[in-house]
Design a protein that fits this description.
The complex is a heterodimer of chains A (252) and B (261). Chain A is of the alpha+beta class. Chain A is 30% helix and 23% strand. Chain A has seven helices and ten strands. Chain B contains ten helices and two strands, in the order H-H-H-E-E-H-H-H-H-H-H-H. Classes of the chains: A alpha+beta (252), B mainly alpha (261).
């Protein structure tokens, strides 16, 4: 009995040591390959990190499903967010002629674009689904300029790790990693189903990334910042969402 | 060949003696330690998934079929519940507080722990013969007579005998196999089919189900089936003797000597 329990103790000890060492190595590797989300701390950090890391390993380059024109939801559901602030109302009164998208941070050529300039860049369209974390969804044809094109225009520095994007609503900002930022379906969308993007759906300019849920698709985008760290943005958790209790990564 | 034969004999002969050297620990353990530990981890995860899942449903208590669905779409059915979002027409004059943030965090964390625990359990079960020995119904029970006597016993609320403390009856075996190999895989699959990033990598997970909203609806029904299982399971444990059955799943001891059966 005593030699049995000693053997058990040694085996358990070895297993625990190997497990701890394994976890340490896994954490080091995950950090190196960008598999750790900014909101990895706290009691739900384990699940959030496993979601993000596993989906990055499985789906770094995969394309969101695209649909046929006959599958477009009629009408596209506008999940409106009234009331809008005064800055927005002023720009809306002017037909958004003075709407600007400023891009700064770790870029070679900081710039500011009007909607007309954005529309003059090569446009792309996609018929994709927008799914909300609440459970509802709709399919629409989104038209816009790929975010990667804007990043090419301003020239991002090699140390860039996140693109932070801000709505005209100061409480709504978010960020994505470079895998999403350079993904071919990540758009700054200005058109919907052949028309200008309605205000109800986030017009005049909305971040559109069909591989993540609705709340990552920030409406009324006015500002992009390129950075190598999320420290210094809000509480450093990657976006306003974790500060409100929601996960930074919304691929699930 | 001759050497291996002569080697096997002493090894084979020594097995029974080493097993009988410690009869107390091997004979009276109703459930193996791994079954007991994974059972309770799964219990905690399942309760967390149930509570957080219910909270998430409250933000949109409407269900659809196909790819898309929203408040402008005719639902397949609605739950007669208030919602935590004011955009859902529920007929109630109030809106519940938003609990989706922590509910979603907890739902995925519990799902990860449950899936990893489940994998450990299934691998263990296959290698140790747990499924073959304890869960696959014996051939004799898979007859009309075997089923009818088990069902008749349940209908007459016959209290289980002492031999039932050591083995599962045919209805239990089939139910457990159904939960482990049908309902749990189905609830994991339909859950993943709602993830836009997961289905971008493996689109068949959602197209095979008929769309993302179909996946959500099936996920709901499978969860209801699992909840019904939980209720019946706990009711049967109470009927069979809550103390002895629960002790058996915690310590492994039934309190009933095997020799008497």
């Amino acid at each position: 009995m005593s030699h049995l329990s000693r053997r058990k103790l040694i085996v358990t000890g070895l297993a625990a040591t190997a497990g701890t060492a394994g976890l340490g190595v896994a954490a080091r590797l995950a950090q190196k390959y960008g598999l750790v989300p900014p909101d990895h701390g706290g009691i739900y950090g384990l699940g959030e990190t496993l979601n993000y890391a596993s989906q990055r390993l499985l789906a770094r380059h995969s394309l969101a499903r695209e649909f046929s024109e006959s599958q477009i939801s009629k009408p596209p559901f506008p999940n409106e967010i009234p009331p809008f602030n005064d800055a927005f109302k002023r720009l809306q009164a002017g037909g958004f002629a003075d709407w600007r998208l400023t891009v700064d941070g770790m870029v070679e050529r900081p710039a500011s674009f009007s909607l007309t300039e954005l529309r003059s860049y090569p446009s792309r369209s996609q018929i994709t689904q927008l799914a909300c974390e609440e459970g509802w969804s709709y399919i629409a044809e989104w038209v816009g300029v790929p975010l990667s094109h804007i990043l090419d225009v301003v020239g991002i520095r090699p140390q860039a790790r996140y693109i932070v994007y801000f709505s005209i609503d100061p409480d709504w900002w978010d960020s994505i990693d470079m895998a999403d930022a350079t993904h071919p379906q990540t758009f700054l969308a200005y058109g919907l189903n052949g028309n200008e993007l309605p205000v109800g759906n986030g017009g005049p300019l909305r971040m559109r990334l069909p591989r993540q849920l609705g709340y990552k698709n920030v409406k009324f985008v006015t500002h992009l910042t390129v950075t190598d760290s999320m420290k210094g943005f809000g509480k450093g958790l990657g976006s306003a969402s974790p500060e409100g209790g929601y996960a930074w990564y919304a691929g699930i | 060949m001759a050497t291996s034969g002569s080697l096997q004999e002493p090894l084979g002969a020594s097995l029974p003696s080493s097993a009988s050297a410690d009869p107390a620990s091997t004979v009276t353990s109703r459930h193996s330690a791994l079954v007991r530990v994974t059972h309770w981890i799964t219990t905690l995860c399942f309760l967390a998934l149930l509570v957080s899942g219910a909270e998430i449903v409250l933000s949109h208590p409407r269900f659809y079929w196909g790819e898309t669905g929203n408040v402008l779409t005719t639902p397949l059915f609605k739950l007669p519940l208030p919602s935590s979002r004011n955009l859902v027409p529920t007929g109630y004059g109030y809106v519940l507080p938003d609990q989706n943030g922590w509910s979603r965090y907890l739902h995925f964390q519990a799902a990860w722990i449950a899936v990893l625990t489940g994998l450990l359990y299934v691998i263990f079960g296959l290698f140790t013969g747990h499924f073959r020995r304890n869960l696959l119904p014996p051939k004799a029970d898979l007859s009309w007579r075997g089923f009818s006597s088990a069902i008749a016993g349940h209908l007459r609320f016959k209290r289980p005998g002492e031999e039932d403390a050591w083995s599962y009856n045919v209805l239990q075996r089939i139910t457990y196999l159904l939960v482990i190999f049908i309902l749990f895989p189905l609830v994991i699959w339909t859950g993943l089919a709602m993830s836009p990033a997961f289905v971008s990598a493996i689109p068949a997970t959602v197209t095979m189900l008929g769309g993302q909203q179909s996946a959500r609806t099936i996920h709901f029904f499978v969860s209801v089936a699992l909840l019904l299982f939980l209720i019946v399971h706990v009711a049967m444990v109470c009927l069979a003797g809550f103390k002895s059955r629960t002790r058996a799943m915690i310590t492994g001891r039934t309190g009933i000597s095997m020799e008497r059966t």
